[in-house]
Amino acid sequence: MPTVELNGFQMYYEDRGTGEPLLLLHGGMGIGSDWRHVFPQDPEGYRVIVPDLRGHGQSTNPAKMFTFRQCAQDVLAVLDHLGIAQTKALGMSMGAKTLLHVGTARPNSVGAMVLVSATPYFPPPLRIAAAEFTTAALDRLGEAERTALRARHVHGDEQIALLYEMTRQFAVSYDDMAFTPPKLATINARTLIVHGDRDPLYPVDLAFELFRAIPRAALYVVPYGGHGPVFGPLAAPFRAVALAHLSKQEEHVGG
After folding, report:
1. Is the pTM of this model over 0.90?
2. How far is Cα 60 from Cα 64, in angstroms, rounded to an integer?
């Protein structure tokens, strides 16, 4: 699978199938292939583009810095590299926050998108959780956990340490994720907001804030769902709702 140099780093991505472009963006400390747990087979009729985001998986991050704003520019750069002027997109947590930046930086680049466990800004529960990603916490990991991380993030222990530091920095970041209603109102994409009503990091109220601010938005609240409520037994209903949303040309996906 190809790797491309852009914005000062090497981005690994997979480009599969033919049809309408569909971009899949993974969550924080995840990798592109995590989407296989949601889509065991690629959705029919789509050319699926699945990157490892900056510093994750097989992608590098020589600058040793991460912002969602920069990550969005990386995503736009790989779309430009592939000659894709407009795509449909799904983003999980980190990927969803990246898509908020993509959709506001270049509104016509995304025709329809699904945001799973997104937020307009970092609330206190996220900041508390992020602050726990310390060097000491990394040192306390067992060998099995380290082995699993090394299998996913292939550039060694320094890469894993940088991912911990990236996550810890979210606790004190205030200008990267700072979407106001007027800013969100510039998003052109038909947007489906998917949120668990038991999300411990982003209270469900934040999903309603996104829903009220994004002009062409729909809201799918998953009962008893936590953060990233699209895996395991929740994958099949999510696939049905998400693909229906992406395939529709109108505002309503039901009936």
Report:
1. yes
2. 9
User: How far is the C-alpha of 139 from the C-alpha of 141, rounded, in Å?
Assistant: 6
For residue 223, give its domain range: 3-247
In a domain, 252, yes or no: no
| Sheet (strand 217-222) strand order | 3-6, 9-16, 46-51, 20-25, 87-92, 110-116, 190-196, 217-222
Q: How many domains does the chain have?
A: 1
| Residue 67 domain-assigned (yes or no) | yes
Residue 253's pLDDT band (cuts 50, 70, 90): very low
pLDDT at 248: 83
The pLDDT of residue 251 is above 90: no
Taking residues 44-73, what's their average pLDDT?
A: 98
Q: Give buried/exposed letters for 5-40 (b at 16+ CB in 10 A, else e).
A: ebeebbbbbbeeeeebbbbbbbbbbbbbebbeebbe
Average pLDDT, the chain: 96
The domain that holds 76 is classified in CATH as 3.40.50.1820
- Distance between CA 22 and CA 250 in Å, rounded? 18
Judge contact between 90 and 26, C-beta under 8 A: no
pLDDT at 215: 97
